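Person: I have long wanted to understand how a fold can be written as tokens. Underneath my words sits a plain record pairing an amino acid chain with its backbone structure tokens. Those tokens are not coordinates but codes from a learned vocabulary of shapes. I should like you to check that the lines agree and flag anything odd. The protein I mean follows directly.
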Amino acid sequence: MLPHRKLLLLLAIVLVGGSLGWTARYGFDLRSESHRIEVEHELTEFFDLPCDVGRIRGHTFESRAFEDLVIWLPNRRDQVFSCKTAIWHDKKKNSHPRSELDLIDGVLILGTDRWQWEDYRQVFQSGLGHDFEELDLHRVGMSNFEIAFTRGDVAVRCRNTSGTIDMSDPTDGIARLRAYELNGYRISQGVQIDAHFLPKNGVEISEFILTLPEVPLTAIGVDRALGSDITTGRFSGQVQYRKTEQEPEIWLRGNLTDADVSELTGAVPLGPFVGRFSVTVDWARITDSIVTHFRGSGTISGFTLQPFAPLLGQENLSGTAAFNIDPVDLALGHVNRLRLDGSVSGLTLQALLQPWGAGSATGVLAIRVNNLDVVDDNIRSADVEVSVVPPSGEAGTIDRELLLSVAERALGYTWPQAVPKRILPEHVEYTEFGMRLLVRDNQLRILGTHGEAGDTILTIKILGTPMGLIKERPGTIDLGPYLDDLLQRVRSYDADRVRQWWESTADQRYDR
């Protein structure tokens, strides 16, 4: 995906048409060498860039043909534009001049690693700073063009591009182009390029839309931008640029299917993440290199939790997750709506209990999320089942001090004062361990899952006899403070660390 300043240059081709028409009207002998040199000189002055014209010839009574046109960077360091044939048509409609231009077999270069940032400024300002209404140019046709940009980690090359640029309305120019090859991949349906701009007083893009049929991610060129080999995933959708009074905006819509998370997150903070996902993007807004809004739905599987250990304050976080998410509606630092169901497996009991005290525990958790519904940063409802499975062929154990710490601090259990704690063995064996978590409006109830009344959370074994040690308790726990703390961490991470990371790597991406 090209930054908006580079996308603007797609319409620089319009300027070639305007200048050609302007100079052609002053030619007396179209085939003379002196006239060709004169046209080259006037084009060079018009663009403030070196220009070549190979040949000028008559085409019809109302048209002129210009062959082998080339526009260069200063000192002829690199080509900006070349066209085998450009045909200028002098027409009239209702007694008013109505000029048109057809460009055939050409190349428009938007930038390469050889370009300096001053080149972008000069091409932009010298080319787009003209009033096309004075040139009476109403339409530009393009046929069999190549549009290319290569700089650092970004490479986009559209070939076999054709279409029209309508400039008849000075308040709303419309460009409609279609390319049938993208970065070496033939696309039978074509890539649609649409733009709205203001032809008067120079070209000012108000909207730019790139519409893609389903293509491999490799065709988009994200592998170079992300610094990793992309071998999976397909994308179809739309990329839209909008000019606003504040920062320009990029909006995304579309479908990304069967993508490898690790291939896409190798260079991001805490990455790479492991998993596979498919997502439908209803819309996502990007401004100042930050995703500020996202709405959509999707599925993710085999997603490892370990990279999030620093964010959650757990050193030995393990396990994988699989979720169905529908819908998700996020703003920067806020959850407008999130509803999901799924499961987490492979999370060890030791990792879960670590924040509650010292000691060891054995066993693996199985978590089933039947429903989680978050609205406006609050849990409107949740239904989560948690069970602990002892190690295969062994008894599950929890150190006594760790067990009592968790029971008292996390589950509100109070050990009877009349009973000495040393009655429990140093390593307590459990036979069943599970709970059901129900949440309504941030209020959590912890229910048991077994026992005669179905209200037991933990059953241990003492002297070979099972005993229900911890049972569900009446009342609820307010999750509001915990959610506020978690969201504060996320907001700080998104707003600060991501921005700092992006800005710190920007120079590495482009100063090459």
User: Anything to note?
Assistant: Residues 352-478 form one domain. The radius of gyration is 33 Å.
